[in-house]
Design a protein that fits this description.
alpha+beta, five-stranded mixed beta sheet, six-stranded antiparallel beta sheet, 52% helix, 501 residues, single chain
Length: 501
């Protein structure tokens, strides 16, 4: 086969081009520190690089989600711990108040301090927000837990589930002597106060609606499931305190009656009714309420309820209180709820207990004023009017006895406040435990993601990063080969036919 100079020149140029390609490849690897410069260089490396980079972007996003969730949960934990601290202080305060001698000044201090505790728990802690979003209101993070102003336009129909175990035996003062200028000492003695026992439970609200929009009388609907599994309906009798003809008559139902006291929001059970209810379950009260005061709890955050705007006719339905989870995606196919709802953590019974103690203190103040008025009448009475003096003295003794009995009731209420706070702490502790377990899971997920990010970074680097030492060796080898090819080609192509003539 005849080999011409043209053939050698073409072959030499082809080989030199191949050497330049290799020379350029290793030069680019050394300059960019990457194995490939375009996907066509090595499709497998390119595909893996896309996969690793996508994974890293996702991990970074999950870590950002975790940071946001951590901030939310840290803010929640701070509030829960603060509520727990306040409840502990309240237990100590109730213990101190229940075991000490309480005079009028002490009662004023007790009421003032307990109200401040209540305000702090509900207005400061439960109504807390984080970055403009309320912590304990479930999905509706833009709606505060409490009413910011008086509300008169929307009627709420509230369905409140009552725990039968929360129907407590209650000892109260029944009856009492009332001044009448014509009464004798024997008549005052016959009106002597005495202790009576009943069973009662507080609704979460007082002053429920007693009439509908048409002015028709209505009351709450009370149902429960009896021991035989049959749903029973009770028809509470509305009993206003102002209608009492005997002191605390509103706490004195017949055995087969249930009283609803709108001023306090109490349900008072007669003995027979209570015996039936306590052996049953699923005690539920349904009632309407339109008038709410500033800083009253919004019902939709605690109860299943429906609403009607009395001006526009617009309706609303809230059915998911206690099950509204703010979910964050914190890992591949992993979702974590970061919020805690107020109804699952902060009990409304604290405020109701304090209202009851406040009412008892106010009643004792009224009794003491009545006693002062009687003592003034005794001081002004003609000492020769023995009949009148005897009747006033008897009235004085009866009111004094009534005050002592009422103070006993107050002491029992303060002792009951200890139990109320402890139960509220138990509910709070359950919420804290649930919150802490989710927080621990999030921390573990974050640690796992951080390790996964390191592993993915290593795999990504191994897949696409060039070994600089190897790249330099290959580059040097390609350079030597290129120089050798140039030298050999120049010698071959430099010879012509004239050199042999």
């Amino acid at each position: 086969m005849r080999v011409t100079n043209s053939m050698m020149r073409n072959n030499s140029m082809l080989n030199m081009q191949k050497n330049k390609v290799a020379y350029n490849k290793y030069l680019m690897q050394y300059n960019t520190q990457k194995k490939i410069q375009r996907p066509s260089d090595d499709p497998i490396i390119a595909a893996k690089a896309l996969k690793y980079r996508t994974t890293l972007v996702e991990i970074d996003q999950y870590l950002k989600n975790i940071d946001d969730a951590t901030s939310w949960m840290d803010a929640t934990e701070t509030v829960l711990n603060d509520v727990d601290s306040v409840l502990r202080n309240m237990v100590d305060y109730f213990t101190q108040a229940a075991t000490g001698t309480v005079n009028s000044d002490d009662r004023a201090d007790i009421v003032a301090n307990l109200k401040q505790y209540s305000y702090y728990i509900y207005e400061q802690d439960a109504n807390s927000d984080y970055a403009g979003r309320y912590l304990f209101t479930g999905y509706r993070t833009d709606v505060p837990l409490l009413f910011g102003e008086e509300q008169r336009d929307v009627t709420y129909t509230i369905t409140e589930n009552l725990d039968v175990d929360n129907i407590k035996q209650y000892q109260y003062v029944y009856g009492g002597a009332v001044y009448d200028d014509n009464k004798t000492a024997d008549q005052y003695a016959s009106e002597a106060s005495k202790f009576e026992n009943t069973h009662r439970i507080f609704l979460s609200y007082d002053d429920c609606d007693l009439t509908d929009a048409q002015g028709n009388t209505k009351s709450i609907q009370l149902t429960y499931v009896d021991q035989a599994g049959v749903t029973q309906t009770l028809n509470p009798i509305t009993k206003n305190i102002e209608d009492n003809t005997v002191y605390n008559e509103h706490l004195h139902p017949a055995a087969d009656e249930v009283y609803y006291i709108p001023e306090t929001g109490e349900l008072v059970f007669g003995d027979d009714v209570y015996n039936d209810v306590r052996t049953g379950k699923n005690l539920t009260a349904v009632y309407d309420k339109t008038e709410f005061q500033v800083n009253d709890i919004r019902p939709e955050h605690y109860f299943k309820c429906s609403t009607v705007n009395n001006k526009t006719g617009e309706t609303g339905l809230y059915t998911s209180a206690g099950s509204q989870k703010l979910n964050y995606q914190v890992n591949f196919s992993q979702i974590l709820a970061v919020n805690t709802e107020a109804c699952n953590a902060i009990d409304t019974s604290i405020g109701r207990c304090i209202e009851d103690i406040t009412n008892l203190c106010n009643e004792i103040d009224i009794m003491e004023k009545n006693l002062g008025a009687v003592e003034k009448r005794i001081a002004e009475c003609d000492e020769n009017d023995t009949t009148k003096l005897a009747s006033l003295t008897e009235l004085q003794e009866q009111i004094s006895t009534q005050i002592q009995l009422q103070k006993t009731v107050l002491t029992n209420a303060l002792s009951g406040g200890i139990t109320t706070c402890q139960k509220a702490q138990e509910k709070l502790n359950v919420a804290c435990a649930d919150h802490g377990s989710r927080n621990n899971r999030m921390i573990m997920t974050k640690n796992k993601l951080e390790m996964q990010k390191i592993d993915t970074d290593d795999a990504k680097s191994e897949n696409e990063d060039a070994d600089l030492g190897e790249a330099m060796v290959n580059f040097t080898e390609a350079d030597l080969l290129h120089q050798a090819v140039l030298g050999a080609t120049s010698k071959i192509l430099g010879q012509s036919l004239l050199n042999f003539i």
